[in-house]
Amino acid sequence: MTPDELLALDAEHVWHPYAPMPGTVPPLLVTGAEGVRLRLADGRELVDGMSSWWAAIHGYGHPVLDEALREQAGRMSHVMFGGLTHEPAITLAHSLAELTPDPLRHVFLCDSGSVSVEVAVKMCLQYQRSRGRTGRRKLLTWRGGYHGDTFQPMSVCDPEGGMHSLWRGVLPEQVFVPAPPSDFGAEPDQSYMDTLAEAVAAHADELAAVIVEPVVQGAGGMRFHHPAYLRALREVTEAHGVLLIFDEIATGFGRTGKLFAAEHAGVTPDVLCVGKALTGGYLTMAATLCTPEVAHGISRGTLPVLAHGPTFMGNPLASAVANASISLLRKGDWAADVARIESGLRAGLAPAAALPGVLDVRVLGAIGVVQLDRPVDMAAATRELTGRGVWLRPFRDLIYTMPPYVTENADLTRICSAIVSTVTLA
């Protein structure tokens, strides 16, 4: 079929994320991807500054990841995980337990990031019930967060600024505290840490867990906060028997300059969610890790099993490519790449700070953000960005980039200059 025929069928049948049906803005038709470039049906090439929603950290068509898929497909594409197991999943679980902070040793493999949060919440609820704390059914979080699009994750997304406010009255009602001060490099605010401690203490009898995105609040606003607030949460949750969940779906595997954002704070949660970059952007897969205390607590309950079991849990293809992606991180110098990108983003985005309508320019690791004083004009921004050979997906008042770690300096300069030129048009 011609590109026009394909796009006509797309308009008729395909419901795209966060879009009406039928759609109002036609998507760009991608015919291939290699390195950090997306090839379009009209012959253009765009530098991908989004890592395909933050997942393709090694770029596209990486020979190591491609070979891992081919080799595994030649042996076994899928087998049920109930009552059976296989080498790719075992190796992956072992690697995750090695890479993540101690004592996160037990790994539940999931289909997606949202599902990993669902599993994390279920773990915490079952743990509290197994301890006889049946009144502990709620979660505490801070505003400005985003944890996914299924129902439990939606309930801990920002209730006002998030896209899920229309579900108020349907979702479980959780406990919210103010968003953390947005300045990674500033001195921590003691009064805010006191607010966190007071809120957890006041609601301890009804809280199963606290859930937050460590250091970087992603799709809720791309805000960076001081690691001290994570240490404050760890201290107060331990004092009151409340579990602590870190959602590292966006930040895991090096994005913030540490392999996991929790390392900035030097603390370990009771439950950790990872996803997105886990397979290098090749296949959907996530994982929920927990400590022995959580796992053994559930096992001592009246229902001694975790009541969850996805059909494609531990899929061998996804496990194999995840193992290959982790191997690339271990054998390569991802930290130097992320530091190089951070330096390039700081220099390249600095001119935006002086432009009218710019509220803030912030960079952490391989994340660069320009925040405006108004919502982005998506149509105008997309025209300008693609016209300059760059693919980004702004949202709300933000034009931001999270490029693949293999992005070379010239392409990084192109991304930054495209963002700066787009600010005045968006």
TrEMBL record:
Main location: cytoplasm
Residue stretches in coiled coil: none
Residues bound to substrate: 53, 146, 276, 309, 393
Positions bearing N6-(pyridoxal phosphate)lysine: 276
Swiss-Prot/TrEMBL GO biological process terms: antibiotic biosynthetic process; biotin biosynthetic process
Localization, UniProt: Cytoplasm
Cellular component terms per the entry's GO annotation: cytoplasm
Enzyme class: transferase
Record site: Participates in the substrate recognition with KAPA and in a stacking interaction with the adenine ring of SAM: 18
Keywords: Aminotransferase, Antibiotic biosynthesis, Biotin biosynthesis, Cytoplasm, Pyridoxal phosphate, S-adenosyl-L-methionine, Transferase
Role according to the record: Catalyzes the transfer of the alpha-amino group from S-adenosyl-L-methionine (SAM) to 7-keto-8-aminopelargonic acid (KAPA) to form 7,8-diaminopelargonic acid (DAPA). It is the only aminotransferase known to utilize SAM as an amino donor.
Record-linked PANTHER family: ADENOSYLMETHIONINE-8-AMINO-7-OXONONANOATE AMINOTRANSFERASE
Protein name from the UniProt record: Adenosylmethionine-8-amino-7-oxononanoate aminotransferase
Organism: Amycolatopsis antarctica
Originating gene: bioA
